[in-house]
Specification:
It is a single chain. By secondary structure, the protein is mainly α. It folds into two domains: 56 residues, no CATH class; 77 residues. The chain has a three-stranded antiparallel beta sheet with strand order 2-1-3, with no helix packed on it. Helix 1 packs antiparallel against helix 2. About 9% of the residues have low confidence.
Length: 139
């Protein structure tokens, strides 16, 4: 059982102190608080890492997200290798000049990570814009 306010429009259960539905934005300040079975909700939280956060869409850009995660992963690998080889180079030659190519590799890796994160943010923005455009006619 979940205690809270059930939205009259989307039938989702919100927190007891909520004035507006977190799912659809309907004013629920006049709705009475009650106990509702979990089965009554129509939407499910896709991302369980942050319970209570409403996530109602699945990205249409799964390939782009996979590629951006892959680019970020290889970027972090380059950062780790560059730093590791720079430290090894410093101790083996005791020269700062020997470290420069390895530090360049680490910086290149950071640029790859940045590119992957920017791509992921762009895809998230596209998903959210699509979600907004789908909900606008409902209002």
């Amino acid at each position: 059982m979940k205690r809270g306010k059930k939205c009259p429009d989307c039938k989702e259960v919100n927190d007891s102190g909520a004035s507006f539905c977190v799912w659809c934005g309907t004013n629920i300040s006049d709705v009475t608080i009650g106990d509702h079975p979990e089965e009554e909700t129509t939407r499910r939280n896709i991302d369980n890492s942050f319970p209570g956060t409403p996530v109602t869409y699945v990205s249409r850009y799964k390939t782009a997200i996979f590629v951006s995660n892959l680019v970020s992963f290889f970027g972090w690998v380059l950062v780790a290798m560059g730093v590791l080889f720079a430290v090894i180079g410093l101790y083996s030659s005791l020269s700062m000049i020997g470290m420069l190519p390895d530090l360049g590799t680490a910086v290149s890796g950071l640029f790859l990570v940045m590119g992957g994160q920017i791509t992921k943010a762009t895809v998230d923005n596209a998903d959210h814009t699509r979600e907004i455009l789908q909900r606008l006619p409902e209002r």
